[in-house]
Amino acid sequence: MAEQLKAIKGMNDILPPDSARWEWLEDTVRRLMRRYGYHNVRTPIVEPTALFVRGLGEVTDIVEKEMYSFEDSLNGDRLTLRPEGTAGVVRAMNEHNFLYEGGRRLYYIGPMFRHERPQKGRYRQFHQVGAEVLGFPGPDVDAEVILMTAALWRDLGLAVGKDVCLQLNSLGQPAERLAHREALIRHLEAHADQLDDDARRRLHSNPLRILDTKNPAMQAIVEAAPKLMDFLGDESVTHLRAVRDALDAVGVPYEINPRLVRGMDYYNLTVFEWVTDRLGAQGTVCGGGRYDGLIEQLGGKPAPAVGWGLGMERLLLLLQEVGASSPSVAPDAYAVVMAGAPMAQVLQTLENLRDAGVCVQQHPLGKDGPPSVKSQFKKADASGARFALVFGPDELAQGQVTIKPLRDGGQQVAQDLSSLTTWADDLKAATQS
Length: 433
Ligand code: ATP
Ligand code: MG
Fold this sequence. Notes:
Elements: H1 18-36, E1 39-40, E2 46-48, H2 49-56, H3 61-66, E3 68-71, E4 78-81, H4 86-95, E5 104-113, E6 125-134, H5 139-156, E7 165-170, H6 174-190, H7 197-202, H8 207-210, H9 219-223, H10 234-250, E8 254-256, E9 268-275, E10 284-290, H11 294-297, E11 305-311, H12 312-321, E12 333-337, H13 343-355, E13 360-362, H14 373-382, E14 387-391, H15 393-397, E15 400-405, E16 413-416, H16 420-432
Parallel strand pairs: 1-5, 7-8, 12-13, 12-14
Antiparallel strand pairs: 2-4, 3-4, 5-6, 6-11, 7-9, 9-10, 10-11, 14-15, 15-16
Helix pairs in contact: 1-5, 5-10
Bound molecules: adenosine-5'-triphosphate and magnesium ion.
C-alpha cells in the first residue's frame, strides 16, 4: 500500500460531528452581524508580505517569528499566508475606494496562519471571526463593537462576567504614548539586570510590549512600571469615559486593566480583551480596539477605525468546557426501504419531504437491492433520527408509509402519503418550539 500522507502539524481537519458545531457558530455569527448591520468581506488568504510588515509593525511577535512567508516561484514576489484579518480588509477598502462615501461596518470569517508551537487553543492554522468599523471616530462605535461581542456570548449561552470577562484599557494617542514610553524606558533601564533577553532586545524598539511579558521573573518590575493611564490627555480620558458609560448603560461588566496592551502596533485609544480562566494559558478568546492610524499607514486617505478578532477554536473549546448545548447532526427521519417497494414512489416521497424542510436520510441500497430490514433499522437507530419511515410494497400500494417513532416511544402509524406534508409541518413546528 502507498504511504499515507498526514496533515501539517498544528493544522487540523474539522470533521463531523464536530463540524456541525462550527457551522452552528458561523450561523450564529452571521445572524449577529445582520442584526448590527455589518457586511461580509472575503479577502485573499495570501497577501504581499509587505502588507503585514507595514500593517503590524516590524517588532511584533507575528512579524518577527510567526508568519508563513515564501517566495512566489514564478516571479519572486514575497508572499505571506495571512496571520490576521485586519490588514487585508484595510488594504481592500483602500484599493477599492470603499471609504469614499463614508464609513463601513464589515466582518469576516476565515482561516489565519501563524507559525507557533501547537498546543491546546493554539494552532498554526486557526480561524477568526473579525469585525471592523472604518471611518467613524466616536467612542459610540468602540462601545458598539464591544456590545456586539457581549451579544454574541449571550447568543451562544455564555455567561458574561463569569465564563468570559471583559478587560478594557486606553492606549491614548501617539504623543501620550511617546511620553509614557520615555518614562518606561527610564524605569526598565534602571532595572536592566532583571530583564530577560527578549525584553533587553525590545527595550528601545518596543518597550510597551515588554509589559505584555509572560515571564514570571519579570512580573515585579512590570508591576512597578509607569502606567500609560497616568499620561493620557483630556481627550483620551473623555473617550474612555464615554466607552465606559455606554457599557455601564447596558450593564456589560468590565475591568480596567492598565497593563493591557495588544500584540499589534496599530492600536490607539480603546483596547479590550475577553478572557476566560477556563482554558489555561490560552485565555484570550477575543481581542480588539481602535486603530486610527492604520488606514493611512497602508496608503489610504486617513480615516479612523475600530475592530476585534476572535479565535473560533478557543471559543468552541470554551463552549465545550462550560457545557453549552451543541447542535444535533441527527436527521429528522431515516428511510427504511423494503424489498419490492417501487423506488420511483419512494424517491418522490423523500423529495417531497425534503422540499417541506424535513431532514431525511436514506439507507444506501447497494447494487443488489435493499439490505435486510433489521440492518436498516440498526442504522436508523444509530443515526439519531426521531422517526423511521418504512416503505413497504403493500403499504405503498395503498398510498401509505409506516412512521415508527425511534426515540420517545409511541406507536407506529400508517400515514397517508397524500397528507404527509401536514405531518412534516407538525414535525417542524415541534422541533422549532
Ligand atoms: P495570544 O496572546 O494568545 O497569542 P494574540 O494577541 O496573538 O493572542 P490576536 O492576534 O489578537 O491574538 O488574535 C485574536 C484572537 O485569535 C486571540 O484572542 C485568540 O483567541 C485567537 N488566536 C490567536 N492566535 C491563535 C492561534 N495560534 N491559535 C488559535 N487561536 C489563536
Ligand atoms: Mg499571539
